[in-house]
Amino acid sequence: MRNDMLRFATLQLRDSHLAEDMVQDTMIAALNKAEQFGGRSSVKTWVFAILRNNVLDAIKQRSRTVNAGDYIAEGESMDSAFDTLFKANEHWTPAARPTDWGDPEDALREQQFWKVFDACLTRLPENTARVFMMREFLELDSNEICDTLSISMSNCHVILHRARNGLRRCLESNWFSEGSPAC
């Protein structure tokens, strides 16, 4: 998951050092906010949502800084976080009880699809993938994308069209073709 996060952040921020910091900050934030995880999605989806919001903030405000005092000292966070999950008899507290994981075969099929999708996205030209991710992952509207990248609206629409066609062709040949797993 970390490699996927790092690739996403690097592509969006175009700064490998800032992307590494952003991924680390996201992981720390996820650990600090673990009690807020409702289980309505996978952990990966939840963590990526945190990363997406962090990257979006960084894109909009490059001068944003992280206050180191917001983080609990190393070693303390893990113990205190786990203590709140269990009762004195070492059983789960009702609020922390794990949720049903669903059908493992469906989860595996979905995981395999996203691996193929990620491979297809990686095959797109860098700028095409970047615009697509800004639109679909960061949920920026076309005006924000154009302002951020200093491109025209028509160029943005052409890039998005090419990205969707490239992904469609790649997925058709690598996922939806005969003999591939159906989703």
Would you mind describing this structure in some detail?
This protein has 183 residues and is mainly alpha-helical. It folds into two domains: 1-99, Rna Polymerase Sigma Factor, Chain: A; 100-183, Arc Repressor Mutant, subunit A. 63% of the residues lie in helices and 0% in strands. It has eight helices and no strands. The chain has helices spanning 2-13, 16-32, 43-60, 76-83, 104-123, 126-136, 142-149, 153-174. α1 (2-13) runs parallel beside α3. The longest helix has 22 residues, at 153-174. It starts with a helix and ends in a 9-residue tail after the last helix. Mean pLDDT is 78; it is low at 63-78. One of its GO terms (molecular function) is DNA binding. Belongs to the sigma-70 factor family. ECF subfamily. Keywords: DNA-binding, Sigma factor, Transcription, Transcription regulation.
Main structural class? mainly alpha
Low-confidence stretches: 63-78
The name CATH uses for the topology of the largest domain is Rna Polymerase Sigma Factor, Chain: A
Q: Helicity, in percent?
A: 55-70%
Average pLDDT taken over every residue:
78
Supply the number of structural domains. Answer: 2
**N/C terminus separation:** 21 Å
**C-alpha Rg (nearest Å):** 19 Å
Number of helices: 8
Query: Secondary-structure element order, as H and E?
Result: HHHHHHHH
Question: What CATH architecture of the largest domain do you see?
Answer: Orthogonal Bundle
Taking the sheet with the most strands, its summary is:
none
**What global shape is seen?**
globular
Fraction of residues in β-strands: under 5%
Strands, total number: 0
Per CATH, the class of the largest domain reads Mainly Alpha
Family: Belongs to the sigma-70 factor family. ECF subfamily.
GO biological process, one term: DNA-templated transcription initiation
GO molecular function: DNA binding; sigma factor activity
Protein name: Sigma-70 family RNA polymerase sigma factor
